[in-house]
Specification:
By secondary structure, the chain is of the alpha/beta class. The protein is built from eight helices and seven strands; from the N terminus they run E-H-E-H-E-H-E-H-E-H-E-H-H-H-E. The structure holds nicotinamide-adenine-dinucleotide (NAD).
């Protein structure tokens, strides 16, 4: 029997990138997918977010993999909307087994330069959005006595990160939130863990704003020109990981084999972890 047969998985930020990759892998494992995304741009974020067509493409690919999929356009900042999304999962499928709080954004600026709007958007999406997701998803899991909760932080949540103070603060917060949920649900059949990717090859890093941050000395830098700059961020000299590298960690934490793994952070960092205490 496929590993996730009979399981229902809710994934935020599922229209593209890592969220889509996790949705497809879980679908290939037999899970039913609830794919959530805001599908609209957000003020202060210097690159386009996903579109309705992207979310529809995720649904098409999940169904092509042989699983059921419902899509919901909702912003994780909307706590009522997040509760409604979970209620729909329970109404349609009777349960919710796996929750991946993946939706997130990035912008940048030194702490002395960040605007109020940049700060609030970052905390609202990358921290409060995760809180809204977990607060909505955990109760039915506690009731059914089973759940796998996986939050997506970042290596930026494991060390100070110049130009990303607000992002780093939000991602450290996600780790604290997840560890606390792990303790509060321990003994209920639930695990709660965090994955911390380094740089992953998605639209979040492949855009002109990010390229210019890493190559300020080049006019309109290209992907090829920034690859060596990104590679300089980690000991393996890998410019970026693939989404599949993160998906492998997510699948493990969602699996039965990880039933006694809770409250941990799993880092996909191309060696940066070796530098941390
Ligand atoms: N790409 C990287 O290098 C990297 C590294 C470490 C951590 N991360 C984290 O991984 C997660 C996924 O990012 P990605 O790399 O796939 O980027 P991405 O931009 O390709 O995907 C993010 C998705 O989240 C959606 N989204 C953003 N804000 C939302 C909101 N408020 N409500 C609902 N949906 C929202 C976007 O529309 C998009 O589809 C994020 O939390 C990000 O911070 C990314």
């Amino acid at each position: 029997m496929p590993q996730f047969e009979g399981k229902v998985a809710l994934i935020t930020g599922a229209a593209r990138g890592q969220g889509r990759a996790h949705a497809l892998a879980l679908a290939e494992g037999g899970a039913t997918i609830i794919a959530l995304d805001c599908c609209s741009d957000v003020e202060t974020i210097p690159y386009p977010l996903a579109r309705t067509e992207d979310l529809n493409e995720t649904k098409f690919l999940v169904e092509e993999a042989g699983s059921r999929c419902i899509t919901i356009e909702v912003d994780t900042r909307d706590s009522t909307g997040m509760r409604a999304a979970v209620s729909r999962s329970i109404a349609e499928f009777g349960r919710l087994d796996i929750c991946i709080a993946n939706a997130g954004v990035v912008s940048f600026g030194k702490i002395t330069d960040l605007t109020d709007a940049q700060w609030s958007t970052m905390i609202d999406i990358n921290l409060t959005g995760v809180f809204n997701t977990l607060r909505a998803a955990a109760p039915p899991m506690i009731e059914q006595g089973f759940g796998r909760i996986i939050t997506v932080a970042s290596m930026g949540g494991r060390a100070g990160t110049p130009n990303l103070g607000h992002y780093s603060a939000a991602k450290w917060g996600v780790i604290g939130l997840t560890k606390t949920l792990a303790l509060e649900t321990a003994g209920s059949g639930i695990t709660a863990n965090t994955v911390c990717p380094g740089t992953v090859s998605t639209d979040m890093v492949h855009n002109q704003a990010m390229y210019s941050l890493f190559a300020p000395d080049i006019d309109n830098p290209t992907k090829e020109q920034v690859a060596s700059r990104y590679a300089g961020l980690n000991p393996m000299r890998a410019p970026w990981s693939d989404t599949s590298d993160v998906t492998a960690a997510v699948l493990y934490l969602a699996s039965d084999q990880a039933r006694h793994v809770s409250g941990t952070t799993l880092e996909i960092s191309a060696g940066v972890s070796a530098r941390l205490p």
